[in-house]
Design goal:
Elements lengths: L16 E7 L2 E7 L11 H9 L5 E7 L5 H9 L2 E8 L2 H12 L9 E7 L11 E6 L7 H13 L1 E12 L4 H11 L2 E8 L2 E7 L2
Parallel strand pairs: 3-4, 3-6, 4-5, 6-7
Antiparallel strand pairs: 1-2, 7-9, 8-9
């Protein structure tokens, strides 16, 4: 079956494994599986996003399309107080993210509330005042879905809130930036490396 990670119920044969990664002086161990994005390593784009984001000390953060949870879990290890929600359409990804939260608690501040749940985009997301929404867009799902995530992100950020995305030039970074500029008051390409761009869009 030719399915991709933007699938609600992956049917690919399980291939569970553990990977390790270091962020901000802390070591993380993640359980991954077939049917989720970048199962063999925390990919370069996600790593670049995690390491480029400017995290407030206190924040409400949404890891949109969380996969097995690397972005949300590392974010929860950086901020001092707040809420981190992690959502994905992929049921297998949600199971992995929940497992990985539990098994990386040693790195997470006790003042952080973490919620992991399934949602097709923002369908089940009730918070509308996030400080940060972090997204590695599901490019293979198609431009219309990706752009809808941009539009819905605007509605779920507080004034001054920020959407951070990572996208490759060859996957449509220029057109994605134009779309973001049509929605947000301020859009900035904060970092560029190895064909990847980190783009911050601010709501005002």
């Amino acid at each position: 079956m030719n399915e991709h990670y933007y699938t609600e119920n992956p049917r690919s044969k399980h291939d569970e494994r553990f990977i390790e990664a270091n962020f901000f002086g802390k070591r993380f161990r993640f359980k991954t599986d077939a049917g989720v994005f970048s199962k063999k390593r925390v990919d370069f784009g996600t790593t670049l996003l995690i390491e480029t984001v400017k995290y407030p000390k206190q924040a409400k953060i949404l890891d949109l399309g969380c996969g097995y949870g690397a972005v949300g879990i590392v974010s929860a290890s950086v901020i001092e107080k707040g809420l981190v929600q992690m959502v994905d359409i992929n049921e297998r990804a949600i199971e992995l993210a929940k497992y990985n939260v539990e098994h990386n608690l040693k790195n997470i501040n006790g003042n952080i509330m973490i919620e992991v749940y399934q949602s097709n985009g923002f369908h089940n997301v009730n918070v509308n005042d996030f400080d940060l929404i972090l997204l590695n867009p599901p490019i293979r799902a198609g431009k219309s879905i990706v752009y809808q995530l941009f539009e819905d992100s605007l509605l779920h950020l507080k004034e001054g809130g920020e959407l951070w995305i990572v996208i490759q030039k060859k996957q449509g970074a220029p057109s994605a930036i134009k779309k973001l500029e049509s929605l947000f008051s301020e859009v900035e390409e904060v970092e560029r490396s190895k064909g990847y761009s980190i783009v911050r869009s601010i709501k005002s």
